[in-house]
Structures are given as C-alpha cells and as structure tokens.
Amino acid sequence: MNYGHLVVGPPGAGKTVYCTAAVSFMRKIKRPAVIINLDSANEHLEVSYKPYWDIRSIITMEKVMEDEGLGPNGAMVFCMEHLEKNLGALLAAIRELKGGAFLIFDLPGQTELYTVHNSLVAILHRLEKELKLQLCVVHLVDGSQCLDPAKLVSASLTSLCGMVNFELPWLNVYSKADLCSFDEDDLRDDDRFDPERCIDMLNRTESYGPFRDFNEGVRDLLAEFSLVAFTPLCSRDDKSIASLIQTADGRIGYIPGLLGETDRDPLSIAQDMASGLYEPPEEEVSVEDQVLEQLKGIVRPM
Ligand SMILES: Nc1nc2c(ncn2[C@@H]2O[C@H](COP(=O)(O)OP(=O)(O)OP(=O)(O)O)[C@@H](O)[C@H]2O)c(=O)[nH]1
Ligand SMILES: [Mg+2]
C-alpha cells in the first residue's frame, strides 16, 4: 500500500510552498517522503524542492504552447492528456520505491483540470488501482478568500465539484493563515466554514442580496453535503504543517511508523521540536538522494 497527498487549489494558493514544507517536516520526523511534480509549468523548481519525478521530464507547457500554438490553459490540458497517455514512466518510478515513500503530488493551479476535465481524474484512478495508492486531496485556498463571503462560496463550490469528481478523501485548507486576521464578524467559526452564516452575509450585501433564492439554493446544497469545511494552514510553521499532516493521515488510514519513522503522532513531535525537547536529525542527504541511493542498493537508515 502507498500513501500520499494530492495538493490542488487555484493559482498562487501556496501549493508548491506546502509541498516543500510538508516534505521537509516529514524528513525531520524521519518519514521518507518524495515530491512528484505534475505541474508542467513549474519552472525553477531548484529554488523550492527537488522532485523525485517531474512531468517536465516528458513534456513542458512552454514547448506545447510553441509547438501547438495553444495558450497556457490549453497547453496545461494538453500536458495532462499527454501524461494520461504516457503514464508508464511515472508508474515505473513509483514502483521503484521498493521500501515505500510518502508521495506528495504538486499540481498546477488550473482548477478546470479537476472540475471539468477528465484526464487528471483518470490518472489518479489508475495510480490508485495499479499502485494501491491511498491519497488525501489537500485543497488549498488563499486565506484572504475566506474573508470574502462571495469568494468563499465560489471556493466551496469548486471544492464540492472536485470532491464529487475525484471521489477521494478531501481536506479543505485556507493557506497563509499567518496573513489573516480574524474578528467576530469574520467567517471563521471554530475554523469551520459555516454556509448558513456566509449566505446570510451575502443576502445582506447590495450586489448579492437580489439573488436571495439562488443564494439560499447554494446554501442548501452545501449544507446537504455538509462536506465543505476549511481549516487553517501556515506553511512557515511546523506545528501547523504537522497538524495538517496528522488530519490527512487520519483520512487515509496512515498510521505513523508504517514507513519506518517513529510511531509518535506528528503534532506532538512538532510541539516537542518547538520547545527543544526533540532534535530533528541532522540530515545532510536529501530524501530524494536517499531514495536514489536505496535504488542503487545502498541501504541507509531513513
Ligand atoms: N505568508 C505566507 N505566504 C505563503 C504561505 N504559503 C505560500 N505563501 C506565498 O504565496 C505565494 C505563492 O506560493 P506558491 O506555493 O508558489 O503557490 P502555488 O499554489 O504553488 O502557485 P501556482 O503553482 O502558480 O498555482 C509565494 O509568494 C509564497 O511565498 C504561507 O503559509 N504564508
Ligand atoms: Mg506551484
């Protein structure tokens, strides 16, 4: 059984930063983790992370735009369709991780790829089936959107669409929580999005008030599924990262220790780390390099 996170969300939501921070934290708790980059426009990755496998090794958005005369969105769809038809390289790379590793997939910001287009969904279903991969979708939305009821409703509907299409465990997260200040008029209610309160706020606005029936229809839809809730994340804080990893672990049935790390829960280690009670290992070799060395038959303790 393989486990991982699929990190999705609109452009600039903080997906790449989250992937980098999550892998770095997992390394600190000795959980072997690798990033798989599925964003064909993700240039300059060397400044954030070193992917274990990169879609850009088989196709890039810039080249498709040039060769096919497509704009960025069309080229991104083309790249995903290309990956769907040529999935062998990715499947083989994951199969080579014989000791197992936690897989973190960095995705592009085009939400159409999972709300209206089928290739990404088909790719994931194949990975799930052929690799027994258990994935939790981490859906990031910029925290500033959670302060605007109209944007929050829009993000919630996008999220609902993704949940229905992917049929995978799903976590809604508002990112950059360190930049958000909340007061009692804000939408956060025990860190959970409350559609009823949000729609009430919309009904009271000049722009959205005239659409009361529609707003209430949306409210009933969100309430009926009762799936849409947002939790905060600050990717610069190990405790926040640990808390998210722990919640996602619960959703996919991952038990700490399965990949050889300590069996303590991530949040308690992060708390000990903050108070100096836990020293992360001095890691000179990156996880990607460790995995590559393992593949070469050189066994290193993870
Ligand atoms: N303050 C703060 N800034 C953040 C946080 N996470 C991400 N950012 C910033 O948000 C910006 C976008 O982050 P990325 O990780 O590149 O966003 P992305 O979702 O990968 O963007 P695309 O790949 O273009 O869709 C960068 O300037 C980050 O430094 C956070 O937790 N706190
Ligand atoms: Mg990115």
Features:
single chain, 302 residues, alpha/beta, Rossmann fold, 9 strands, globular, disordered C terminus, binds guanosine-5'-triphosphate, binds magnesium ion
Describe this structure in words.
The structure is a single chain. The protein is an alpha/beta fold and about 300 residues long. Helices cover about 45% and strands about 15% of the residues. It has helices spanning about 15-30, 60-70, 70-85, 90-95, 110-115, 120-130, 150-165, 195-205, 210-225, 240-250, 265-275, 285-295; strands at about 1-10, 35, 55, 100-105, 135-140, 170-175, 190, 190-195, 230. The radius of gyration is 20 Å and the shape is globular. Mean pLDDT is about 90; it is low at about 295-300. Bound molecules: guanosine-5'-triphosphate and magnesium ion (MG).
Helix/strand layout:
Layout: E1 2-8, H1 15-28, E2 33-37, E3 53-54, H2 61-68, H3 72-85, H4 88-95, E4 102-106, H5 112-115, H6 119-131, E5 133-142, H7 149-166, E6 170-175, E7 188-189, E8 192-193, H8 195-203, H9 212-225, E9 230-232, H10 238-252, H11 266-274, H12 287-295
Parallel strand pairs: 1-4, 1-5, 2-3, 2-4, 5-6, 6-9
Antiparallel strand pairs: 7-8
Bound molecules: guanosine-5'-triphosphate (GTP) and magnesium ion (MG).
Magnesium ion binds at residues 15-16, 39, 42.
